[in-house]
Write a structure and sequence with these properties.
4 strands; alpha/beta; 47% helix; 155 residues
């Protein structure tokens, strides 16, 4: 179920250091999500995040860890799409990504906002990348601002 989110209540996060990692697969839809995320983060006083493009979703956790080990980030947002096919490849890649993101996030103590979206069709991905409140970029921006704000207040 898609949930309509309201970015007007997003906390401000001035000076936050955020990176965005994006798989090259399904780039048209992911580009729209990333664009929405960047727009909302900048509106929340976050400097514009640098976007890094990776071959696929499976490479995202490794790239996130490499960036975290190179410099300090307040959060990293990862975008990818994994399309259900006729084989178990879909399940394997999705599970490997989720487990690796969790491991990296906990080991590096840096939030990873995972927007690797498992879908059955391009139409499902299209529905999550339109220029409206259901764009997954809205969800990622809000989650990023909220976790950065929470960490600044509590850690």
């Amino acid at each position: 179920m898609q949930v309509e989110l309201d970015p007007s209540a997003m906390p401000k996060i001035p000076g936050a250091k955020v990176a965005i990692l994006q798989s090259k697969w399904y780039h048209e839809q992911l580009d729209r999500m990333v664009k929405k995320t960047v727009e909302l983060l900048v509106a929340a006083d976050c400097p514009e995040p640098q976007v890094h493009y990776l071959p696929g979703s499976l490479e995202l956790p490794l790239a996130a860890q490499a960036l975290m080990r190179k410099e300090k980030y307040d959060a990293i947002i990862c975008y990818g799409a994994i399309m259900q096919g006729e084989t178990k490849h879909f399940d394997m890649i999705m599970n490997m990504c989720a487990e690796a993101f969790n491991k990296v996030m906990l080991e590096e103590s840096t939030p990873i906002i995972m927007e690797v979206i498992p879908v059955n069709s391009v139409e499902q991905l299209e529905a999550r990348s339109q220029d409206n409140a259901f764009n997954k970029g809205v969800e990622a921006a809000i989650a990023t601002a909220e976790i950065i704000d929470w960490r600044r207040k509590n850690l």
